[in-house]
Amino acid sequence: MRIEGINESTCIVYFGDSICDETAALVKQATDTIRATLSDVITDLVPSYTSVMVCYDLERIDRFGIHTRLRQALESGAAGAQDDAQAQTLELPVYYGPEVALDLKDVCEFSGLSADEVIRIHSEQTYRVYAIGFSPGFAFLGSTDQRIAMPRKSTPRLKVPVGSVGIAGSQTAIYPSATPGGWQIVGRTPSKMVDWDSESLALAQIGDRIKFRSIDREEFISLGGQFDEL
């Protein structure tokens, strides 16, 4: 663990240099611990793949004080109180049909696999939420099976429909809102990834696990899935 200042009211706590489950677990534990023990001085927390950005109130603490309190909290063993078992596992239904799987054919050509094989491989994996960003509720999930890993599109779409499930390199993600994007779209979920009535807004949080469940067209529609945003 190392702490580096960014500006007079912001610092970053680093927990590793590579994206992996162990580092992701440390980031989640640290985020929970910082939120619980330093709520009197912090103004915002931004967890990411290997680090947590900490914003603090200069009227209550200076950079020396925040560094000291962060080390005390994170090295005291308090972080261990938030076990990885605290993370929730979400099962999300995904329709991989041709109406919504805009790039499934390209993924098949790139991987040399059939559509059924790509769908099976993508949906049998359990993914960890490594980061939330880009847009509210956009969860970066890893790691995708290397057999279906594929680079982003060279030319991003101007609008990716809500709920689209995409692949980019060794990650997969769900578009919580209609935004531009270059991920390879292989399906769509009717689940809403943003809950505006909740404190966190996002359905999934860093450290959570997500499992996709392949559904047919009829179930997709019955769950509220839409086709009219293409």
Short description:
This protein has helices spanning 21-37, 63-75, 104-111, 115-124, 217-222, and strands spanning 2-7, 10-14, 42-47, 51-56, 89-95, 126-132, 139-142, 157-160, 164-168, 171-174, 179-181, 184-188, 209-215.
What would your notes on this structure say?
With 230 residues, this protein is α+β, with helices and mostly antiparallel strands. Helices cover 23% and strands 30% of the residues. The chain has five helices and 13 strands. A hairpin with a 3-residue loop joins β3 (42-47) and β4. It starts with a strand and ends in an 8-residue tail after the last helix. The mean pLDDT is 90.
Q: Please state the CA-atom Rg, rounded to the nearest Å.
A: 19 Å
Main sheet specs? 7 strands, mixed
- Global mean pLDDT: 90
- Span between termini: 45 Å
Q: Approximately how much helix is present in the residues?
A: 10-25%
| Beta-strand residue percentage | 25-35%
